[in-house]
Amino acid sequence: MATAHGSNILLALEERKGVGNGAMSPAVEAAKEYAAGFAAGVATVITGHPFDTVKVKLQAHNTKTQVKEYKNALHCTSRILITEGVRGLYKGASSSFIGMACESSLLFGIYSQTKQKFQGEIQNNRPQLQVIIPSAAFAGALISFILCPTELVKCRMQVQGKDAAMFVRYDGPLECALKTIRQEGVKVKGIFRGGLSTLLRETIGNAVFFSTYELTRHHLHKQLSFSPSASSHHSKVLVDTGIGIVTGGLAGTAFWLAVLPLDVAKTVIQTSPDPNYSRNPLQTLNAIYKRVGLSGCYAGLGPTLARAFPANAVAIMTWELTAKFLGIRRD
């Protein structure tokens, strides 16, 4: 009995030693995944918010009648700069920082953790769509409940301006949120208006995003792993950074090409001054199509695609480099 007890003590010490020498507990690993996602979200807002402001204004104003408020994205941008200055491009950024940082932290963290669970004991370096798609869709569905109210506040702040007399004016995001809750409530007719559109956009969009990211990342790593120039540590960091930029940019572009009409519907629903406006994204898109044609369903396409590549390239690059810095192993 004494020998067995001694063996158990030695075994426990060895296990603790193994953890100390580099093996992370599941809780620590999960926390690091969420931290890397948080960093990616902050980087996304800094890079992409001005493009997003232009996109939201085009979606809110150019879908009402056949007479367009703005000729194109450049015209919209110039009007914002002339009437409001650079600050006008960053309207709603504070709520966007909160929403995007938390959303990105949860999105990347939940996706990584769910993918690990679905993969189980399968040892396969090739991307498995049967694992990636449900993991990404699940993560997207969960974060939509955070995104919906924060994006409602962001969009209502963004559509304001000297060209937007029909919209209610708010002094800041907090006032916007409090007024919305007080006047419209917390449910789907209030701060969670546009919830179905957000849910569909994030579920479908993130399935497309992570599938594109994982497939292109695997392909590029496979092609570049045979390159002699990628042998040194410095070269490997440069290659990984380059791959992160390319895969992030392509994944972001694929995301928005897949779900932009749902985003248009969400913006129109969330910014409509009419409290009885339809909350159904398909009905909203049908109404937009009848008013202004197919182009209305893709309002804001230019600034969206202009933003998609750099913002998501920075997000993925930040996510991967932060993960590497924190000691998270990426296969």
Could you explain how this protein is built, in words?
This is Mitochondrial carrier protein. Solcar repeats lie at residues 28-117, 127-219, 239-325. Belongs to the mitochondrial carrier (TC 2.A.29) family. By secondary structure, the protein is mostly helical. The protein is built from twelve helices and no strands. Mean pLDDT is 83; it is low at 1-7 and 9-22.
Overall mean pLDDT stands at 83
Overall number of strands: 0
Uncertain segments of ≥5 residues (pLDDT<50)? 1-7, 9-22
Q: Order of helices and strands, N to C?
A: HHHHHHHHHHHH
Helix share bin: over 70%
Family: Belongs to the mitochondrial carrier (TC 2.A.29) family.
GO molecular function, one term: L-ornithine transmembrane transporter activity
Protein name: Mitochondrial carrier protein
Membrane topology: Multi-pass membrane protein
In short:
The chain has 331 residues and is mainly α. The chain is 76% helix and 0% strand. The chain has helices at 2-20, 26-61, 73-84, 86-89, 93-119, 129-158, 173-184, 195-224, 233-271, 281-292, 294-297, 301-326.
